[in-house]
Fold this sequence. Notes:
It is a single chain. The chain is of the alpha/beta class. It has 22 helices and 15 strands. The strands form 4 sheets. Strands 3-4-14-9-10-13 form a 6-stranded mixed β-sheet, with helices on both faces. Strands 8-5-6-7-15 form a 5-stranded parallel β-sheet, with helices on both faces. The protein has a two-stranded antiparallel ribbon with strand order 1-2. It is globular and about 65 Å long. The two termini are 42 Å apart.
Amino acid sequence: MKYKSTRSSNVSVTSAQAIAQGIADDGGLFVPESFPQFSYSDLCELSHLSYTERAVRILSEYLTDFDCDEIEEAVHKAYADGKFDYDTPAPLVHLQKGWVEMYMLELWHGPTCAFKDMALQLLPHLLTKSLQKIHSNKTAVILVATSGDTGKAALEGFKNVDGTRILVFYPQNGVSPMQKRQMITQEGNNVFVCAIEGNFDDAQTGVKKIFTDANLNELLAHNGMMFSSANSINWGRLLPQIVYYFSAYCDLIAKGELKREGQEINIVVPTGNFGNILAAYYAKKMGLPVHRLICASNSNNVLTEFIRTGVYNRGRQFFTTISPSMDILVSSNLERLVFDLTGNDSARVAGWMKDLSETGKYQVGADVLEQIQSLFYAGCCDDDATRATIKDIYHEENYLCDTHTAVAVNVYHQYINDTNDLGTPTVIASTASPYKFADSVLGSLSQDYLRDASEFCKVQELSELTGTPVPAPIAALASKPVRFHNSCTKGTMGEMVLKAAGIE
Length: 504
Ligand SMILES: *Cc1c(COP(=O)(O)O)cnc(C)c1O
């Protein structure tokens, strides 16, 4: 299996190269040259296997330059080494509302309580193996700019992984108290965390500059190191996400929940960078029986507009919402979808991406829009609707969900109202533990809680109110010592990089 770029037709690299490099030299994203097919009988076979065995089967179709042993070892370290607090990393919870069959695919049982763990527990192992394969014996210095969830998940994934060091920059006033605490108490012998005076964009722009800073690159090379990235456009983050959609379908087969062979399901995904829902699209392309992919957004509804009109316009007001991991105006992974839907027309895609960077928008043709609309349904909801959904689903189903997942549930209801599609079993991606956003979740359920109380009081109160357990990684945070007090400005990020790399 080779990988090509979405922006030119002459790129062809191995999976190790694609994962080690992250982004193609032409600025495009790596995509597999073909999609392995799974028939219904293949799915039945997979349904008898464990999550890790299913993952190995699917990954080995794409990582053909890896040995089976290497894939097994990586998958085992990621999912079967006690990192997940459940007997399977991605359990499916059945909720029956009237005659609607909803299945919550809980992707937050990992060490940081958000779905980013599903990919970031595996990526470090794939990345270090990839670096060996391309004969790089350098230590990879992973730089991350985070608005909250990615930074912590990357720290947990890379901690104590030989051959890597990781440095996370977070905006001083741009992350929730819980997210900050998760990061500054991080354990591990190769981790470094630093606050930056500024917002997420400042952190992101600063990190991008460092990646191309000739002086820093040379200093690192001189010390046997190189920069690398763990961001969500890396193929090594997308691939692990395809697995859990297959696994959810296999669980439906195994539990006898499907009414007929090959019965289609809907998949609902609360979306920001378009990574998680793109993985669901790839699963459908590989033969998973999927009827509709439902793309759920918060008030930053740039994707809702795109799927409805074919116009992608990032020139709009930015809203800070209670589902912050979806507060995004540029959904990078969308580039892979439009590449696929144009029949791999890299020239056309490169043109749209140029329009986006120069004018802030682009418009796809009627041919592409027609396909998008037959594959996807899109909807959005604001914070008030999100809170109301958390309350409803808690009272009606006795199910506690986080703010991001609530956006998905709300948009699924919109879909049902618009289409009356009641017969199709529907899998909803549940992307974070409610305890990660305890303040907003508690505020949705109860009017008279202690608004000014500490985050940990709210966690406790949520647990008492709902009788649900606090996830162990969150409970443990209260007593963990703070390890990182560093802060820097946009101008001094480079010095922090050298400090983190141990070069001075
Ligand atoms: C990152 C994140 C999302 C958005 O996922 P994308 O792959 O960026 O679309 C949704 N929910 C939570 C909790 C997240 O952390």
